[in-house]
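re: ur question from the group chat, yeah i did fold both. here u go
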Amino acid sequence: MKKTLMTLSTLLFSATLAAEPSPPAPAASKLDPAWMVMQEKVSGVIGAEKQHAMVDLAYATVAGDVCDNLDINEKSLDEEFQRFAADLQKKSSAEEQRRIENGLMGYFGIYVGLVVAESLNDTEAFCKEVSEVRKRGGGPTRYWVTPEPVAPH
């Protein structure tokens, strides 16, 4: 399972890790074909950089739901979606923009589903990986905040 999560991490953070030495190639996840199809489709619509940002958004969203002591920074999430929309406005008619936005929301939902599936295979390992991602910084960490501690009663 850890190898599956390493595969997911490699896909999620390939842009961030490009300057770092590559880890050994992990065993293939059963979901790898779905990840590859999505990468090709979404990159074709919004480009590789924004595709990576969309995967980061999905990963951050699921991690904030699945793992303890991690909340989503809703403002940064909204700002990222606004950047997607702003880029589309520059390139498309209003009708074409709506069509693309609807498609992107569908793609985002698929990415969330893929990350949920990966996280449910081994939640403990997934959250451990999230903890390591938080330490490394970059990628989806820009969408997380550490929750304020709750005072004991």
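okk and heres the other one u asked abt
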Amino acid sequence: MRISEDSSIEELCNISAMLIDKSIHDLLQVSSDSLPKSVAIYHYTRAIRYLDEITLLCSKGFCREPEDLLNALLNLYVTIRWLLFFNPKQRIRDFMQNESGKASSEKWPQKDAKTMAAEIGYSQEYENFMLGIFLYPGNGKHAAISGQDHEQLRKMLRAGIELFLEIKKYIMKILEITWDQAQEMETLKCL
């Protein structure tokens, strides 16, 4: 789902806030009655938190901090896709053992997101996302924002929302929830 290129930061913040509220409401309706669902809920809550923090920072004009959170959100997306790509039941079990500190290095490979992206055929998209967000002249600025920085904030917030929606698509599959992404976005635009 693409968000309009013309959306203002205020409009994007409103869309993000409604998406977060709806996602929290949806999350409260889900039972974690299996290991895959528990892992999905764990990742979903992180994605919600990252989007909320990205939204807050962009709304306040911070240019550098949202980049770190977008990177974390992208890595979360790659991890979710990697967990589901090949032998998901085993990968999810191994993931849980790793998170609890019980995994051996053979069971849970220490891979970075770029390597996992390559394994799932997402290398080009990963690189394009990284280049599109992180290479612009305003990096590192914390002072009052210029017009160029304002555009970058809109770009980062829009990318955060779109990435969150992609994560949500995979999470809904794991949670076995029917979800119409297009319908949700149309609903959000009308509110």
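fwiw on the second one: The helical segments are 9-28, 35-59, 65-85, 88-100, 113-119, 123-134, 147-174, 181-190. DSSP finds eight helices and no strands in the chain. idk if thats what u expected
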